[in-house]
Write a structure and sequence with these properties.
Number of helices: 14
CATH superfamily of the largest domain: Metallo-dependent phosphatases
CATH topology of the largest domain: Purple Acid Phosphatase, chain A, domain 2
Structural class: alpha/beta
Distance between the termini: 46 Å
Bound molecules: heme C
Number of strands: 11
Helix content: 25-40%
Strand content: 15-25%
Largest sheet: 7 strands, mixed
CATH architecture of the largest domain: 4-Layer Sandwich
CATH class of the largest domain: Alpha Beta
Length: about 375
C-alpha cells in the first residue's frame, strides 16, 4: 500500500511517519517483550523508508535500555524526533529537535512535543520543556512551507495548545488511544488521530494551493487486502517465534502459579458422561475452537491473549484454572466452567445446587467493545444456548 501511495505522490511528495507508543500495555509488564517490540517495529519502519519516528511515553519512560534499542534499530537512517526533551543521556543524543524535509519542492517542518507530566511516569529522570514555548521558538526560527506537529499530550491539553500557538497546519494526536474518524479543525489547524495499534493507516492528501486537506481516510489494514512487505513479514514471523519461546521459558521458570485456591476447574471431558447432548452442542460453537484461533495466530502462549480463549484464567480468584498450555491442556477453549464456575464440587455431589448466575456480565468481560463491537446478549445468547 505504501508503495502505491508513493507512486501516486506528485514529485515524490509523500511523508510517512510513525507517532510512537509502539508497545501495547501488557497485563504484566515484561521488559524483554517491550524491548523486542520496540526493536522490531522501529527496524520495520526504517526498512519501509519512513521519514521519522516520534517516540512517546512507552519508548521514553522505561530507561536507557529501551531507548538504546530504538536508536540502534533506527540505525541512523530513520530520524527520531523529540522537540522539547532535554537530551541529557548519551542515548538521547541521537534524538532530533526538529526535522526540515524537502518534499515535492516544499519545506516541511516537523516537531514532536511531549507532555511535561510524563516525568512522573518515567522510571528514570526525564527533563521536558514547555511544549508551547518550544514550538513557537522553532516555528519562528526555521523557515518552512508546512508545519506538522506530533502531540504526545492528552487530547484536551493538545487542543488548548493549538489555540495558544498559531501557524500549525497539521497536528497529530499521539498520546491517547483511539481515532478521529474525520479530521477536525482547531482554529486553522487540521487535527488528526490514529492510535489503534496498527489496525488502520491514517492517510491525508494535502493541497498547498488551498492550504487544506483534499482527502483524508483511515484505511483498514485487515479488511482491505494489503500486500504485505516480505521483509516486514519475515521480521514479524521471527518475533512470533521469539515470543513463543520466551513464554515457554517463563513458564518453566515457574512464575505465575497460584496454589492457595480451594476450587478447581476440571475440564469438559468430565461432563460428557452425564450431559452428553449439551457437550455435543457446545462443540459446535466457536467457544470450543477458541484456542485453535490463538494457535493459528501463533499466540497460544501469549498471556495477553489466553484469558479470553481458555477456561479459568479470566477470574483466577474463582479457583485454580488454566495455568499454562503444558500444565493444563484440558482447559483450552471457552468451556462450560468458564460460564458456570469450577465444577470439582459438582462432580462430587451432582444433585447439590451448582452453577454461577449467568448474566450479560458473564459475557462482556470477553466480548468487549474492542474484541466484539457487535456483541448483543439478547441475540448472541441464542447462538450458544443449550
Ligand atoms: C455424574 C453425572 C454428572 C457429571 C459428570 C456432571 N454433571 Fe452437571 N449435573 C448433573 C445432575 C444430576 C444435575 C442436576 C439435574 C439436572 O439439571 O440435570 C446437573 C446439573 C448441572 C448444571 C445445572 C445446575 C442447575 O442448578 O440447574 C450445570 C450448569 C452442570 N450440571 C454443569 C456440569 C459441568 C460443567 C460438568 C462437567 C465439568 C458437569 N455438570 C458434570 C450430573 C452431572
Ligand atoms: C472467557 C471469555 C468468553 C466468555 C466469558 C464468553 N465468550 Fe463468547 N467467545 C469468546 C471467544 C474467544 C470467542 C471466539 C472463539 C474463536 O472463534 O476463536 C467467542 C465466540 C462467541 C460466539 C460466536 C459463536 C459461534 O459459534 O458463532 C458467540 C455467539 C458468543 N461467543 C456468545 C457468548 C455469550 C452469550 C457469552 C455469555 C453467556 C459468552 N460468549 C461468554 C470468549 C468468551
Ligand atoms: C478481552 C478478551 C479477549 C482477548 C484478551 C483476546 N481475545 Fe481474541 N476474541 C475474543 C472474542 C470475544 C472473540 C470473538 C469475537 C467475534 O465474535 O468475532 C475473539 C476472536 C478471536 C479470533 C477469531 C476471530 C477472528 O477474528 O478471526 C482470533 C484469531 C483471536 N480472537 C485472536 C486473539 C489474539 C491473537 C489475542 C491476543 C493478542 C486475543 N485474541 C485476545 C476475546 C478476546
Ligand atoms: C458461554 C457460556 C456457557 C458455556 C460455555 C456453557 N454454558 Fe451451560 N448454560 C449457559 C447459560 C446461559 C444457560 C442457561 C441457564 C442460565 O441462564 O443459567 C446454561 C444452562 C446450562 C445447564 C442447565 C440446563 C437446563 O436445562 O436447565 C446445564 C446442565 C449446562 N448449562 C451445562 C453446560 C455444559 C456441560 C457446558 C459445556 C459443555 C456448558 N454448559 C457450557 C451458559 C454456558
Amino acid at each position: 500500500m505504501i508503495k502505491t501511495l508513493r507512486r501516486q505522490a506528485p514529485g515524490g511528495g509523500m511523508l510517512l511517519l510513525n507517532v510512537g507508543n509502539l508497545t501495547k500495555p501488557s497485563i504484566r509488564k515484561d521488559f524483554a517483550v517491550m524491548k523486542k517490540q520496540v526493536e522490531v517495529i522501529t527496524a520495520c519502519y526504517r526498512q519501509l523508508g519512513a521519514d521519522l519516528l516520534a517516540p512517546g511515553l512507552q519508548e521514553l519512560a522505561y530507561g536507557d535500555d529501551i531507548i538504546n534499542t530504538m536508536v540502534k534499530a533506527a540505525g541512523g537512517s530513520l530520524p527520531l524526533l523529540c522537540t522539547n526533551l532535554e537530551k541529557h543521556s548519551p542515548a538521547m543524543k541521537a534524538f532530533r529537535d526538529y526535522l526540515l524535509l524537502e518534499k515535492g519542492g516544499r519545506r516541511i517542518l516537523l516537531t514532536s512535543l511531549l507532555d511535561p507530566a510524563m516525568k512522573r511516569k518515567a522510571i528514570h529522570p526525564l527533563a521536558i520543556g514547555d511544549p508551547a514555548a518550544s514550538l513557537r521558538q522553532i516555528q519562528a526560527a526555521v523557515p518552512h512551507d508546512l508545519s506538522v506537529v506530533i502531540l504526545h499530550l492528552a487530547d484536551r491539553k493538545a487542543r488548548t495548545l493549538l489555540q495558544q500557538v498559531k501557524g500549525v497546519d497539521i497536528a497529530i494526536l499521539a498520546a491517547q488511544r483511539g481515532t478521529l474518524p474525520q479530521p477536525e479543525m482547531v482554529g486553522k489547524t487540521v487535527l488528526l488521530k490514529n492510535n489503534n495499534h496498527g489496525k488502520t493507516i491514517g492517510y491525508l492528501d494535502w493541497s498547498f494551493a488551498r492550504r487544506q486537506p483534499v482527502k483524508a481516510a483511515l484505511v483498514e489494514l485487515e479488511k482491505k487486502r494489503v500486500d504485505p512487505d516480505p521483509r516486514v513479514e519475515k521480521q514479524v514471523a521471527a518475533v512470533e517465534a521469539w515470543l513463543r519461546q520466551h513464554y515457554i521459558d517463563l513458564e518453566k521458570s515457574g512464575r505465575g502459579a497460584d496454589s492457595k485456591l480451594t476450587s478447581t476447574y476440571v475440564g469438559v471431558k468430565k461432563c460428557g458422561s452425564c450431559h452428553a447432548k449439551i457437550v455435543a452442542d457446545w462443540q459446535q460453537t466457536r467457544h470450543a475452537r477458541a484456542y485453535a484461533s490463538l494457535q493459528k495466530k501463533c499466540r497460544d502462549y501469549c498471556p495477553d491473549c489466553l484469558p479470553c480463549h481458555v477456561t479459568g484464567k479470566k477470574n483466577p480468584q474463582n479457583g485454580v484454572g488454566f495455568l499454562s498450555p503444558q500444565k493444563t491442556p484440558h482447559l483450552f477453549n471457552v468451556q462450560c466452567e468458564q460460564c458456570h464456575g469450577a465444577a470439582d464440587r459438582h462432580l462430587q455431589d451432582p444433585e447439590k445446587p451448582y452453577g454461577a448466575l449467568i448474566t450479560p456480565d458473564t459475557c462482556v468481560t470477553c466480548h468487549t467493545p474492542q474484541t466484539d463491537p457487535e456483541f448483543s446478549y439478547e441475540k448472541d445468547i441464542n447462538l450458544i444456548s443449550h
